[in-house]
Design a protein that fits this description.
Helices cover 36% and strands 27% of the residues. The protein has 281 residues and is α+β, with helices and mostly antiparallel strands. The strands form 4 sheets. A 5-stranded antiparallel β-sheet has the order 4-5-10-6-7, sandwiched between helices. The longest helix is centred in the last third of the chain and has 23 residues, at 258-280. Bound molecules: flavin-adenine dinucleotide (FAD). The site of flavin-adenine dinucleotide has 31 residues, from strand 2, helix 2, helix 6, helix 7 and helix 8.
């Protein structure tokens, strides 16, 4: 199938992109195109204008600033995968990226596109949530920052308003006692996950502080398992697995039933918890 007709404009700067999307209520930003083009071809989306942001300079940096790792919206998954800064200061992201699609997709797909698209089975939204990160958003009235906990609002719905764009995401830089874990179950490596879990914590003499467990593939958005977090933080793994029954209510989908997904969420929690312990030791 072919997309419905659309106009195309190449933005020269963030301001120019905002002006272009502000002019046309049906405009969409084009980043890596790895999700957008598929939705156009399937006619799930019919924007009248695509605003290509790939030529905007300054959106592809990765740097540590004021204790946060800032990753520009146009950083490709592959660039983040190879980045020494990410490996050292955001190891959860480094562990996660190889699970996103395949090399061809990671060569084009961007961090900003993945966060904006907010696929409930995507890895990076869960990572951002597990790390307590934030999204930097530019709009006609200036720039604002939204915490990951508030950004993902529903199925493919985010806190991004009309006429706004993501310019970067930020996550706290890992400290000496930071531990993280990632695991997902997919039918084949590179497929969207049936269920996945990203976790981050600070080792605190046998227990955990700031423990955050973010699941994906279990509902409309990536979501934290707060009761399981509380149980695991005091070292009660069995209680944490049991608490998932209250934290998660995954619907049946084309891949699996909700019952199986909830069981798999427990399997992943045991795997990830053991890796957190290894790292802390
Ligand atoms: C075969 C295949 C397998 C895949 N497997 C996975 C997988 O396992 N896990 C996974 O997470 N992803 C997977 N993806 C998706 C991939 O990660 C995409 O790159 C990502 O979802 C979107 O990034 P993009 O840069 O391509 O965005 P685009 O496709 O260009 O845009 C996606 C959406 O985000 C909006 N957007 C893009 N950038 C911005 C911005 N800066 N500000 C505001 N809005 C913006 C666009 O308007 C559009 O609505 C797969 C894709 C394919 C084709």
């Amino acid at each position: 199938m072919k997309p419905a007709p659309f106009a195309y404009a190449k933005a020269r700067s963030v301001e120019h992109a905002l002006e272009l999307i502000g002019r046309d209520g049906e405009a969409r930003i084009l980043a890596g195109g790895q999700s957008l083009i598929a939705t156009l071809n399937m006619r799930l989306s019919r924007p009248t204008l695509l605003v290509d942001i790939n030529g905007i300079s300054g959106l592809d940096g990765i740097a540590v600033k004021d204790g946060m790792v800032e990753i520009g919206a146009l950083v490709r998954h592959a660039q983040a995968e190879r980045s020494d800064v990410i490996a050292k200061h955001a190891p959860l992201i480094a562990k996660t990226i190889p699970h996103i699609g395949h090399p061809a997709i990671r060569n084009r797909g961007t961090i900003g596109g993945s966060i904006a698209f907010a696929d409930p089975a995507a890895e990076l939204p869960a990572c951002l949530l597990a790390l307590g990160g934030e999204v930097v958003i530019a709009g006609a009235k200036g720039s604002r920052t939204v915490a990951a906990d508030d950004f993902f609002q529903g199925l493919f719905e985010t806190a991004l308003g009309a006429g706004e764009m993501i310019t970067a995401v930020r996550v706290p830089a890992a400290a000496a006692m930071t531990c993280c874990g990632f695991a997902e179950l997919a039918r084949r490596h590179g497929d969207y996950a049936l269920v996945g879990l990203a976790a981050s914590a600070r080792a605190n003499g046998g227990t955990w502080a700031d423990l955050r467990l973010a699941y994906f593939g279990v509902g409309a958005t990536a979501q934290r398992a707060r009761k399981a977090e509380a149980a695991l933080a005091r070292g009660a793994l069995d209680d944490a697995v049991a608490a998932l029954a209250e934290d998660l209510d995954p619907p049946d989908d084309v891949q699996e039933t909700g019952t199986v997904k909830r069981h798999l969420a427990g399997v992943l929690l045991r795997r990830v918890a053991s890796r957190l312990v290894e790292r802390a030791a």
